[in-house]
Amino acid sequence: MTNKIDTDMVKHVAHLVRLGISEEEAQKFSGQFSSIIDYFTMLNEVDTENIPPASDITNNKNVLREDIAQPSMSREEFLNNAPQSERGYVKVPTVFGEE
Amino acid sequence: MQLHNLTIREASEMLTNKKISSVELTQATLQRAHEIDPQIQSYVTITDDLALEQARQADERIAKGENVTPLTGIPFAMKDCISTRGVRTTCSSKILEDYVPQYNATVANKLADSGAVLIGKTNMDEFGMGSSCENSALFKTRNPWDLERVPGGSSGGSAAAMSAGLASFTIGEDTGGSVRMPAGFCNVTGIKPTYGRVSRYGLISLVSSFDCIGPMTRDVYDCATVLEHIAGHDPLDSTTYQSPITNYTQHINKSVKGMTIGIPKEYFVSGMEAGVEISIQEAIRTYEKLGMKIQEVSLPNTKYALPVYYLLLFAEASSNLARFDGTRFGLSVSENAKDVIDIYLQTRHEGFGDEVKRRIMLGAYALSAGYYDAYYLKAQKVRTLLRRDFETALASVDILLAPTCPTTAFKLGEKTNDPLEMYLSDIYVVATNPAGVPALALPCGFSNNMPVGMQLIGKHLDEQTLFQVGHAYQQVTDWHKQLPNL
Q1: Cβ-defined contact of A90 to B327 (cutoff 8 Å)
Q2: Contact present, A1 and A41 (Cβ < 8 Å)
Q3: In the list B42, B62, B169, B318, which could disulfide-bond B161, CB 3.0-4.6 Å?
Q4: Which among B329, B332, B419 has CB closest to A36?
Q5: How many helices (H) and strands (E) would you count in chain B?
Q6: Confidence band of A99 (pLDDT split at 50, 70, 90)
Q7: What is the pLDDT of residue B437?
Q8: Are B435 and B210 in contact (CB under 8 A)?
Q9: Catalytic residues of B, which ones?
Q10: pLDDT beyond 50 at A1
Q11: Which of the four pLDDT bands, split at 50, 70 and 90, describes residue B167?
């Protein structure tokens, strides 16, 4: 496996996490990422044949409760933090664009 | 008598004996914070009015003798990643710089119920991503022992405030050493409880499967006191344990004679500062004198703890931080946005610092098609081995002892240009979080006039033994009583 993370790959992952990124930043991160990912390949040394992946460390089984409706945060309180709202709703620009 | 150096136990006794009032204690603490903190910069927000109001209520409770707990009237500060209703909660990030939660974290509710007095919120590495507090997007916190040095991270503000006497206790959060490492750097006591012992509801999550809220205090007894009041099952966090909370302080004086300490041999290899090693060896001898047996143990997968920790952190953080999208709360940058994606891109570009950007991009990379098996899945498998290491080692001993960091506090700017170098300073503290086991950090000496910390690591849900063994040490040493010159 090659660990060179070029600027195209950096821009690709930036888009996956919806992060705007400049050409300059992509170049800076590209160098740093390659050395960090290189460090991670150390894990290849470990024999994990028949080792299950960790999922829950509390040994909890399904945690269930009765589904009882209770008062939650009011619409007004919630909208106190919304950058833009209208008639009790969060307001955002077009969600489904041409892309 | 200096009010700001009192332990919780001492202050509580004076409050209930009416030698001081909570208003007096709170005023003295606030005054000291306003005087001293400009040079330390541990506080993001100081809540003067709220604190004095809570102090008045605490004094009423004490006067009536109703519902008085050991924390009633005691001023404390909380790491700024824990939601406080009506009090700005920033995570030391630009993206939350003006965010005011509309609800309390369970820990905030529990402390309010116990009558503790919130005097402020403390600085941290942005979203907990860092080991020096230098990744705060707001300002850098200084180590009270040497203002040219870092306090450690990510709970650097909580550690520095505690060390400088700017609160009677503080609340930190430990995702991979973020309570223990700064506790060691600043000469305070702090615990990362068992994962699931303290509710995470209202904690702004970094790594949901690692995050543990824990107290930072002047001594082990105080640490046990605070944990008793914040631990427990919470219906709002389904990963919390149902098992009841032990009365930790009641059994804290039990003798440690005949118990066994395990020394993980993999932790004592090259790279440790000489003065740190000397202090740790001295602490081991102290325990021998207390009648404990010392036994070498092995945690064979130790060298893989750091890559496992960071890989899983990147992955979980990349999805956890997806919530900061500029549409529902927090910073919103929407200039000329033609669609909602533009708001996401611009808000996150402006709102997140470099370390956050690095980590969420690397997380997306490790989770993406073609790399998932090699990185994320592999790390989860090695995580199973890390957990088994602790189970095996702790089957033959009562507790493990190790340093909290290979060095004492480093200088500001010393490691900021090399992210990987910074990650390596977490080498002794990260393994416990993927494994979920509890660990107590406490002062154990000085190297070149800077504090050295050690940690005691215990079995799942066995905080009791950690407190007992830590308390025994503090009965025969006075490292924890040493204070910085300010």
Answers
A1: yes
A2: yes
A3: B42
A4: B419
A5: 15, 11
A6: low
A7: 97
A8: no
A9: 79, 154, 178
A10: no
A11: very high
β-pairing verdict for B212-217 and B189-192: antiparallel
Please tell us whether the domain made up of B1-486 is placed in CATH 3.90.1300.10: yes
Domain A1-46 adopts which CATH fold?
Answer: Histone, subunit A (1.10.20)
Among residues 19-48 of chain A, which lie with CB inside 8 Å of chain B?
A: 19-21, 25, 29, 32-33, 35-37, 39-40, 42-44, 46, 48
Q: Can you read off the two tokens belonging to residue A35?
A: 């050395």
Cβ of A43 within 8 Å of Cβ of B102? The answer is no
* Count of other CB atoms within 10 angstroms of residue B66: 9
Minimal Cβ distance to B377: which of A53, A80, A94:
A53
CA distance B335 to A4: 35
The alpha carbon of residue A88 is apart from the nearest alpha carbon of chain B, in Å, by: 12
Surface of B (244-273) touching A: CB under 8 A: none
| Boundaries of every domain in chain B | 1-486
What are the chain B neighbours of A56 within 8 Å (beta carbons)?
209, 239
Residues 6+ apart with CB under 8 A from B384: A51, A52, A53, A54
Report the residue of chain A nearest B332, measured CA to CA.
A83
The predicted-structure confidence for B6-36, as pLDDT tens digits, reads as follows 999 999 999 999 999 999 999 999 999 999 9
Point out the least confidently predicted range of B173-182, B278-287, B414-423: B414-423
ipTM tops the 0.95 cut: no
Token code pair at residue B469: 């063994």
Terminal alpha carbon distance of chain B: 17
